[in-house]
Amino acid sequence: MNYKVRGLDDPYNKTVGFEKEYEDWTEAQDKSMQLLEDGVEWVEILIKNGDGWGLLQELNLERGIVDTNFNTHSLAPYYVRLRDL
């Protein structure tokens, strides 16, 4: 699988300030956490599907990124346990 991490400077216009592809979801989530900790307001993780990209997660610290029920706005439960968040 391929994942793309995008740091958004502007969540309304979707101005991309950072973008990089990863083959490992854990690495993609690590980079997402780093971007959020560095002050990027919104981070998207996209997944390669066929010829394009689909949204897997959209993370924002103010909204919260940890939830016992995984959804598109939270980190995966295994990742939360792995990183002891």
**Class derived from helix and strand content:** alpha+beta
Query: What count of structural domains?
Result: 1
Q: Helix count, per DSSP?
A: 2
Amino-to-carboxy terminus distance:
25 Å
Shape: globular
% residues in beta strands: 35-45%
Computed CA radius of gyration, to the nearest angstrom: 12 Å
SS elements, strand count: 4
**pLDDT < 50 stretches:** none
Task: Give the secondary structure arrangement, pairings included.
Layout: E1 3-10, E2 15-22, H1 25-37, E3 42-49, E4 52-59, H2 77-82
Antiparallel strand pairs: 1-2, 1-3, 3-4
Report on the structure:
There is one protein chain. The protein has two helices and four strands, in the order E-E-H-E-E-H. The chain is α+β, with helices and mostly antiparallel strands and 85 residues long. The mean pLDDT is 86. It has helices at 25-37, 77-82; strands at residues 3-10, 15-22, 42-49, 52-59. It is globular, with a radius of gyration of 12 Å. It has one domain (3-82).
